[in-house]
Amino acid sequence: MKKIILNLILIMNLSLFGLNDYSNIWGGLSVSLSDDLDAMYLNPAGFGVDRGKQSGFNIQQGNFNSNHTNYHIFSSIYRWESGFGFESRYDEINKYHWSLGYGTKILDKLYSGFTINKSDDYSFGMLYRYSNNLSTGFTLFSNNKNTFRKIRYGLAIRPYSPKFTLGFDKLINYNDDWKKDNSTDYYFINFDIAKGFNIGINKYEGKNYSLSLSINLGNKGVVINNYSPNQSTSSITANGIGFFNYSQKQKSDINLINLKINNYVELDLQGIFIEEKPVKKSALNFEINLLPFRNNNLKAIQLRDFIEKIDEIIKKDNINGLIINLGRVQAGFGKRKEIFKSLMRLKESGKEIIVFCEKNDISNMDYYIISMADYIYTTPNTSVDLKGINMEMTFLRGLLDTVSIVPEVVRISPYKTAGDPLINEKMSKEMEENYGQLMNDFYSILTNDLSKSKNWSKEKTIKIIENGPYYSNKEAINAGLINKSLYPDQFDELINLKKINKIKWSEIQPNNYYIEEWTPEDTPKIAIIYAVGGIVSGDSNPSPLGSSIMGDKTIRRAIIEAREDKNIKAIILRIDSGGGSVLASDMIWREINRTINDTSGNKKPIIVSMSDVAASGGYYIGCEADKILAESSSITGSIGVIWVRLNFSDLLKRIGIKFDGLKSNKNADFLSGSHLMTEQEKNKIFNVINESYSDFKEKVINGRENLNDIDQLDEIALGRIWSGDSAKQHGLIDEVGGIVEALESAKELANISLTSDINIEEFPKSEPFSFLKLFNDEKSVSILKFDDFLPIDLATKLSTLNLLPVLIDNELQLLMPYQIIIN
After folding, report:
1. What pLDDT, on a 0 to 100 scale, did the predictor assign at position 217?
2. Residue 195 to residue 402: CA distance in whole angstroms
3. φ and ψ of 711, to 5 deg
């Protein structure tokens, strides 16, 4: 309630706009209807209705003043998803003019808003959508000079459907003392003559009228209007035309794509695939790039958004295929498997896939995700680096010895290898055994999928991989890896010869439709909580390239919010984490446990969906979920506990820094950084580790039905990691699948029909708009990291150093090796 009151106070205090003669230029009819671009002129509360992004350009010609001078008005308008709108207008008499509007939803079905403009005019509006059949609105217009005061209120009725609307408005003019001067009655009707064709008619005061015809082509459209701009001179008319662009797609029988044949969507496939929506930097955050050669100027692509767009293309009968301009893709094997599966679905639907690559080489794993393409073209000097899986781990022991830093590691078993990069210079026997099995699983996935996508036998696939890499175009063509070498201009000529009509990737907008109903029925909601990065106590750190730190407070807040939302029927915990702090992991586990066992009416199913990795702490937080899914190439397991510390005492002695002191008790300097760890200290830590490990195993046994012997769990635990396929065999997960299959499972467990539409609500939510953030946007600060200075290949190999921030607090850790590089 406090938030609602504050919003109203803010809106009323900032309310500054006036009714002008331009309310008809976007087909505006009533204060009870305006929730598109016409909200700027009739009722700014309409900016609070979810209409996505909207923009338009308008040209009007007519007599707009008392002198009946004929002149032109040019205006452009834009509204944002945040509820803000801005119009700039130029005419041949008053020159430049601007207006700013804002609207917000303050209660269910109730919206409010305000506008201000250059002339110190202001308006304040309210909009109430009582039902799908009835809507009311109210707007106050005035200015700071008190030269006019007007109130307009209205009522709109839809007796049958959104295709037919009629209603009534009343405009009352007041004098300086707020005494009624005169009034005008408006009678309007609005109807669709076909999908995409809308007519609006408004009759008022004698022979005055407005007439508008709106034609929409899906996301784009045009509105043509003719109206009486001056009520006192009904014989004079004005007319105009406006062009609009909406991010939400409207239903239309006319679509530019439908009018063309041989339509292909063009996709630039390059960048880093992440789980969350990329965080946008503040528009007022002026970042100075001191390193124009930094290697992190990457484009982030949300995996789920990519998959949904591919599935949307599959549904479109008027789209014939996909053109992929292949660049460098950064993604783990789990995400790549999901990309591969989505493109395979596209291929199997009968759509054609054409790939063109003009970079130096197609990497092993990049070829994997586009291997099903009908045609693959490269430039004459592009190599195909298909050669099998190379799994590399980076070891830092030599570096630490050089600078006299001593890594101290206590762990449940040698299979818990999170500290190996610090204490070893090469793979241990246990690491080689465990990772060897993982590599064999990955190689089996690679060969099986390539055999399927290329329609080769398994033997042929293995032989072609063993003969790689293919540095010669001729060799790659003969092996059937590419179809032909072409220069970019030759590829463009080929596309022209095929008479392909290209559609931009950005024009594919799944599940983003314009909702015509005033109070649409609540669609069941499923929450997806992105649990991404190393697990620490505190808050997460979302960035344009995804999170690298998963803060327990952030994830716990998200779980609580999803649990308490009555409209959310199931929760998917999408995990991409190699673990982290025992304390933070346990705090997250607690909220999941509370949700599964809730007795206050908020109990709802939780489904874990594993991305590239959900191991150690990443497995711990979701091990008691109702259902766990992982891709065959996901990495999971690593059930074990480890304690890691970097001891700087030798380094400090080496540079002349010494320690001395007093202590009241023999253990007062326990784990002090001034000395190396003693055997007594090590034993004490191991006892705590063993206790935490037993607790971890108990949680796994409680959560997984197929595992019931805590003593036998050591055979698959003690820190061992597994592929998704192996994890399924050992009972650590329930089903092999990705985010698509997780959504199907969520529907099933929530008793929602698999064919029913759902709304997906993503967590953690971005912070709501605040005026203060414009001046204090601490989270928009860009931090330079060591690998910003390095070439990509070298930076990737040294990314193990990113483990250090997770270890900085000397806590017990649930960690798997931080970075496994698969080439």
Report:
1. 83
2. 73
3. -75, -35
pLDDT tens for 21-70 read 566 778 889 999 999 999 999 999 999 999 989 999 999 887 655 555 67
E strand residue ranges, 525-605: 525-532, 534-536, 549-551, 568-577, 579-581
Q: Which fold has domain 256-385+484-515?
A: 2-enoyl-CoA Hydratase; Chain A, domain 1 (3.90.226)
Pairing relationship of beta strands 375-378 and 391-392 according to DSSP bridges: unpaired
What letter represents residue 626's amino acid?
D
**Distance (Å, whole) CA 788 – CA 69:** 62
pLDDT digits (tens, 9 = 90+) for 501-545: 999 998 888 777 888 899 887 789 999 999 999 999 999 888 777
**In which residue are the tokens 């890499």 written?**
469
| Portions of the chain given CATH number 2.40.160.60 | 2-246
Class of 2-246 per CATH?
mainly beta
Token pair of 293, please?
């050669």
Domain 525-644+688-803+812-822 CATH (choose: 3.40.50.2000, 3.30.420.10, 3.40.50.410, 3.90.226.10):
3.90.226.10
Which string of b and e fits 344-368 if b means at least 16 CB within 10 Å?
bbbbeeebbbbbbbbbebbbbbbbb
339: number of Cβ within 10 Å = 22
Residue 648, number of CB atoms within 10 A of its CB: 16
The CA distances from residue 573 to 161, 279, 537, 584, 703, in Å, are 39, 19, 18, 16, 15
Where in the chain do CATH 3.90.226.10 domains reside?
256-385+484-515, 525-644+688-803+812-822
Section 300-307 average pLDDT: 96
What is the structure's pLDDT at 120?
86
pLDDT digits (tens, 9 = 90+) for 200-240: 998 887 777 788 899 888 788 899 888 775 554 444 567 88
Any residues with CB less than 8 A from the CB of 488 and at least 6 apart, and which?
Answer: 356, 358, 379
